[in-house]
Amino acid sequence: MSKKVLVISTSPRKGGNSDALADQFIRGAQEAGNQVEKVSLYEKTIGFCRGCLTCQSTQHCVIQDDANTIVQTMLSADVIVWATPIYYYGMCGQMKTMLDRSNPLFSADYQFRDIYLLAAAAENEKHTVQGAVTGLQGWIDCFERARLAGTVFAGGVTSVGEIQGHSALTQAYQMGKHV
């Protein structure tokens, strides 16, 4: 059965290493017959959550920017994929900001069940990605029907394009084929 897959690339660098992971996941998911949409945050205007909690009663954020459109797309996706560079052993600020701005989803009848994380970092140790996994899991825990379905980590990549030939690209592609 075809799924509606939303890939959110949170890197502030166009064509960055986490973006390359996202593209491979997309290729796999499309080849498997899924409908895939990619949103790149580097070209979006997204303000910080103000903590007013209006969205929990209205299901709409009071801030008028690109986050509102992304949240509406998230609402109807079967699968959500987050791609992030690792900064200071955690997700990038753009990803955290988007997670915070997705607060209107808490009281909504969301479609998504499976959440994936794709991450790239200069550091090559396995624990490097754990902060991002923990942060994303905290968000997922707020959605009782959702789960972290998989993680791909590419360590040892810093400069744009340095990920080429990394085994994580194949892992992301294979994960996409099996969503």
Structure description:
With 179 residues, the protein is α/β, with parallel strands linked by helices. It has a single domain, classed as Rossmann fold, CATH 3.40.50. It is built from 6 helices and 6 strands, in the order E-H-E-H-H-E-E-H-E-H-E-H. Strands 1, 2, 3, 4, 5 and 6 form a 6-stranded mixed sheet that branches. Strand 1, helix 1 and strand 2 form a beta-alpha-beta unit.
Question: Which features characterize this protein?
Answer:
six-stranded mixed sheet; Rossmann fold; globular; single chain; 179 residues; alpha/beta; 22% strand
User: Would you report the number of β strands?
Assistant: 6
Summing up helix and strand content along with how strands pair, one would put the structural category as alpha/beta
Would you list the SSEs in sequence order as H and E?
A: EHEHHEEHEHEH
Give the C-alpha Rg: 15 Å
CATH topology: Rossmann fold
Let me know the largest β-sheet: 6 strands, mixed
- Tell me what the CATH architecture is: 3-Layer(aba) Sandwich
Number of helices: 6
CATH class designation: Alpha Beta
User: What's the mean pLDDT score?
Assistant: 96
Q: Could you say how many structural domains there are in total?
A: 1
Tell me what portion of residues adopts beta-strand conformation: 15-25%
The percent range for helix content is: 25-40%
Global outline: globular
CATH superfamily: Flavodoxin domain
How far the N terminus sits from the C terminus, by CA atoms, comes to 10 Å
The unreliable regions are: none
